[in-house]
# Entry
Amino acid sequence: MKRFGIIFISGILIIAIISSSLLLTQFYLPKLESPGYKNISPSELRFMLQDKDFLLINTHIPYEGEIEGTDLFIPYNDTQSQLDELPTNKDAKIVVYCMSDRMSNIAARELVELGYTNVLNLEGGMISWEKSGYPLIYR
# Structure
């Protein structure tokens, strides 16, 4: 009887530990990536700009500066009405950014919903870009 009690309590503890781990993973740990697109750092973008083979889109409104090499300005909430500006090739590499990355995350999700498969988002946006020591330009 005593042996049964020890086994029973051990089983309950194991179940509690596994359940706690699953809950922490599901609800409390931040998600590293949003489905369908990848976040990149300022240093990754800086490296990519040295041999640019992508479309760079500023999604921030109102205009508060830009990263050199920006190809388009498409407000994060206006992607649908500017489809003619986007590549017809859904596999084309597209990098989006805004001031903090809130607006560009929305734009990146929308691009994925439109069928684009190679979408990258500048994590931290222009704020992170400048904090990394890279300049913004103003028109």
User: Anything to note?
Assistant: Confidence is low (pLDDT under 50) at residues 22-34.
